Amino acid sequence: MPTHQTARRPLYTETTTSQALYLPIAPPTLGTAGAIIGRELYSGKAFIYCPFSAFGDGLPGGNMLIMGDTGRGKSALTKTYVGRQIRLGRQVVVLDTKEQTEREEGEWAALGRAITGKAPVRFIPGGGQTPTRINPMDPAISGKRQIELVRTVVELGLGKQLDEFAGSALRLAIRQANRRAADADRVPVLTDVATALRSPQETDAAAKKRSREELLNDGLEASYVLDRLCGTDADASGDLVGMLDGPTSLGIDLDADMVVFDLTRVPSGGVAMTILVAVIAVFLEEVWLRPVCECGAPPAKHERLTVDTRSGAWQLGASEESGCPRYAQRKRIMVCEEAWHILGTPQLAALLEKFLKFARGYGLSCVFIVHHLSDLDDSAETAAALKMADTIVIYSMKVAEAAATVKRLGLPAWTAEHISRLRRGIALWKVGDIIYPGVQHLLTEAEQHLCFSSGSMTDSTASAPSL
User: What's residue 104's pLDDT?
Assistant: First the structure.
């Protein structure tokens, strides 16, 4: 037989092919600054991740999406990651919608108490004995955002968008409610807006070239929606009673290292949950995300340093009051458990788009936890939110779900079968454009009892991997 027929032909590869063949050296590390996650199985190296430390070096933003089948380790990863980031000086807010029945509270409550010593901020329909409220009409929310938020509340309750006439009537009513509350030396609430919608002023009607009756009819439906949501003196059964129908509770400390909003008693998927999350998101944007240095001093307490006399460009330098040598925006993390009710609702996805799009300017990393992408619709708002997740963590899924996820996210075809074979506690990470096929999350012994969320289904002799 001729030699050329039996000789081994040379193997020609591209860089990406070579990386697939030699996985132990393929993915570069993310550096040594950040929170320890565990180990990268194919290289044996420690896996350290921090969106703030890795930002700009192949990672354009800090938003993260975590998904996978139930019981694969999503919540445990997020809790340990958050706890370790707090040790690095980060500040965290959690929207907890996942109840642990055996503890009669949300699954983030124990971790929050361990870190801050404070109970979660718990919202209960009807209010309970000690109601916790966030007021959409709170003066801390700027005028334009306040109008946008109240309109969102009405539209979510109505199930459709307001037309121009109704929107104009609502804006006038909000301004009137603020004026009347100021005259009475109190904080306005949503019921004030409902009252103003049913009692428009002649001057407002004339300014809009409408009769008073026409302006009343323009806003009448919106007033009924607010009555249904917030209740009235004759009917206290509104969806938002005890949660959004009064002044903001003084017990909400947004300066704590970790704030847990416990939403487990609010029906998932209902209008109350959707509206409550919308209000919390805007309240956090206006109050929690205010500029502050890592030293605790606001920008005004730091001196301005001119860096270019021709353009007048300047930056913030030292603070004599705190002794801080340079202004550094405090980094924050917002975690959304069971985020399908947020990303899967177009109005909420659009409302949170500002969080996601301008997260870099806020020094913010948003972390969304879902089971599968099939839980989310394919609306333009949801698609836009998914595109802003620069870090994606995928735990084991069934074959069909894995294939659908890979296709929707545009991942390489080989990852579909790989994802379906991942063991518990091991995930595929995509950080920027780099894929880490097997990252094993490890817990310390002290973290296990705070981060384990499957107690009702687990044998008491079972234990999680530890560092």
Answer: 73
303, part of any domain? no
What is the Cα–Cα distance from 428 to 386, expressed in whole angstroms?
A: 17
Count of residues making up the chain: 467
pLDDT for the residue 454:
54
**Which residues face 153 on adjacent strands?**
none
Residues of the domain holding 357? 15-129+253-291+328-455
Q: What is the pLDDT of residue 9?
A: 46
Q: Are residues 213 and 74 in the same domain?
A: no
What is the three-class DSSP state of 461?
A: coil
- The CA distance from 112 to 93, in Å, is 10
Per-residue pLDDT reduced to its tens digit, 236-267: 788 888 899 889 886 777 888 999 999 888 88
**SS3 of residue 30 by DSSP:** coil
Average of pLDDT values for 379-389? 77
Helices (H), 241-338: 271-283
Task: Name the residue among 332, 360, 356, 358 with its Cα closest to residue 92.
Answer: 332
Strands 258-262 and 91-96 turn out to be: parallel
Do residues 172 and 222 touch, judged by C-beta distance below 8 A?
A: no
pLDDT, the chain, mean: 84
